Amino acid sequence: MKYRILGKTGMNISVVGVGTWQFGGEWGKDFTQGEVNDILDAAQERGINFIDTAECYGDHLSESLIGKRTSRDRDKWIIATKFGHHFHNFLERTRHFDPTDVVRQLDLSLKSLKTDYIDLYQMHSSKDDEFHTEGLWEELERQKEKGKIRHIGLSISGNDNIYQTSRATDVGAESIQVVYNRLDRVPEKEVFPSCREQNLGVLARVPMASGLLSGKYGKGHVFTGSDVRATRDKEELERQIEEVAKINREEVPEGVPMASWALAWCLKDPVVTAVIPGCKNTAQVHSNADAAELL
């Protein structure tokens, strides 16, 4: 495994992390505690020390599954979670950025994660007016002073959101989480230059384009059931699957798994501190970790 410093935080994180939206049950599978333990054990064996989760991956469900595993060796992990949404069901989340409610969310996350501090607490896909919620950033600074939060980050919704990115330092944020992958290079235009200028860490989410860049989905594939990809526009999905096939033919070196290549592709830009792909089993953990060997 290789490691990079996450911007101004000083935290030395593995270039491949573990994304955990799937643990909330929205990617076509419900996870047992044993399965989560196995995934995180495999990650640790490969030198992965960074986990990204959120308050609304289930109703703190992902956090709870993570906490039951990481509580026994908490000091070995760098854990990031988020605030701003309440989970009601797979189709409904409500938005809550009021400082009092955010503190309540923080305390629920700490309880779920079975920890007394969060390494990176990220604003979760806020709108620009929510970004300016009165008293929010002052309250987060107070929570830092209390030791509940070590660092603050922004998980921006639109990957062209230069408005929030350019103001990150002003509000005390030290990292940006953004969608970035071979199919979606929008952040390269404005977001990444701003991150360089401010020395912000960059976490690339959806680095395999929701699994499409694994190369395992062929023309005409249909996602069904509780898989969140079943809600996507079918024509756009088909177009992307065709583009992936072309990339696989023309850009992926012979003998290199496309999934590992796709993660390494993101990391070739030094502004990207880490990628945070999801994984459903230990085999995928090892495939993700292999990306570090391609750098």
TrEMBL record:
GO molecular-function term, one example from the UniProt record: oxidoreductase activity
Keyword annotations of the record: Oxidoreductase
Domain NADP-dependent oxidoreductase: 16-293
InterPro entries: AKR (IPR020471), AKR_Detox_Biosynth (IPR050523), NAD(P)_OxRdtase_dom_sf (IPR036812), NADP_OxRdtase_dom (IPR023210)
GO CC field: cytosol
Pfam families in the cross-refs: Aldo_ket_red (PF00248)
Protein name: Aryl-alcohol dehydrogenase-like predicted oxidoreductase
Source species: Spirochaeta isovalerica
